[in-house]
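ARCHIVE RECORD
Type: protein–small molecule complex
Small molecule: coenzyme A
Source of inputs: curated submission
Record status: active
Notes field left blank by submitter.
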Amino acid sequence: MRLVPILVEPIIPEGSFGGADQPVIEVSRSVSLRPWDGGDAAAVVDAFQDPLIQKWHVRRPDSVEEAAGWIERWQSEWHKESGAHWAVVDPSSNLLFGRIGLKAIDLYDGTAELVYWMAVSARGRGVCSNSVKAVSRWAFDDMTFNRIELEHSVDNAASCRVAGKAGFQFEGTRRRSARHADGWHDMHVHSLIRGDLNEG
Ligand SMILES: CC(C)(COP(=O)(O)OP(=O)(O)OC[C@H]1O[C@@H](n2cnc3c(N)ncnc32)[C@H](O)[C@@H]1OP(=O)(O)O)[C@@H](O)C(=O)NCCC(=O)NCCS
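STRUCTURE (tokenized, with ligand):
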């Protein structure tokens, strides 16, 4: 069978990042993004005890083994160049603050979807929005991404605020487009495209 040829080159050339070690990204003196480690599994399970994290995510690891499997998948996506996932930590104590990542990376269009959660004790002091800004700078300044998309339920006001604080533009509402454990949700779509960070 002959493949139908594609008429465009990938915006992110294959091999741009997956062959190299995943970088540690310094967000501030007290917040770092580092590659996931199998030893983070117990802290992931702890974070998912929070009802709000359970409300806004459709999966919940119930054991350290399940969380370790998740972490392995996040690590492997870096090498396949299909995802880039970081643990958000306190660099001095290695305490896990949360998760931030780019999933569904499309090398041709240079697009990805941003995902995050923060442990209850880390919330309300800008850890998430500053981490979003840092990942966006990596994607646009160090890499050649074209667009990062962020989606959240219209009922998730904190996530909407994070998007705004990090400079993402609101694009609209996708009606009844995601199902959480409590049923269907209309979803807000926000995006950051190449050049947005250098404007204004
Ligand atoms: C959303 C989440 C990641 C934000 O993390 P965070 O580190 O607290 O975020 P930041 O401190 O950078 O910003 C949060 C902003 O939301 C605001 N906020 C928090 N709860 C809010 C609410 N119920 N309604 C409106 N605004 C709210 C905060 O006041 C803050 O804005 P401000 O700095 O202008 O005061 C965190 O709350 C979380 O993990 N929630 C549960 C899981 C989740 O929602 N994941 C995202 C799925 S799309």
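CURATOR ANNOTATION: The helical segments are 41-47, 51-56, 64-80, 127-142, 157-165.
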